[in-house]
Amino acid sequence: MTAPLPTVRLNGRELPCPPGTTLHSLLEREGLRPERVATALNARFVPRAARADTPLQAGDEVSTFEAIVGG
């Protein structure tokens, strides 16, 4: 029997996280434009330049934030 894939939470949604998934690849897979969101991993800010080198692990909590413009 095949073991289930590990999961992470993205903005409260539980998602599969195959081995080797990075923060950048998760954002792209979920249709989020990496250049338009800020990210936090386990409540710690992750700069855009570090996302491709930030591997995800089972149980990680990922949050994204979009800039709000207005007056």
Task: Tell me about this structure.
The radius of gyration is 13 Å and the shape is elongated. The longest helix has 7 residues, at 23-29. It has one helix spanning 23-29; strands at residues 7-10, 13-16, 37-41, 44-46, 61-66. The chain has 71 residues and is mostly beta strands. The chain contains 1 helix and 5 strands. It has a 5-stranded mixed beta sheet with strand order 2-1-5-3-4, with no helix packed on it. Strand 3 and strand 4 (44-46) form a beta hairpin. The chain has a single domain, classed as Ubiquitin-like (UB roll) (Roll).
Structural class: mainly beta
Strand order, biggest sheet? Answer: 2-1-5-3-4
Mean pLDDT across all residues, rounded? 93
Task: Give the number of DSSP strands.
Answer: 5
How much is the radius of gyration in Å? 13 Å
State the fourth-level CATH superfamily: Beta-grasp domain
Helix count? Answer: 1
Query: Which class in CATH terms?
Result: Alpha Beta
CATH architecture: Roll
Number of domains: 1
> Can you tell me the CATH topology?
Ubiquitin-like (UB roll)
Biggest sheet record: 5 strands, mixed
Global outline: elongated
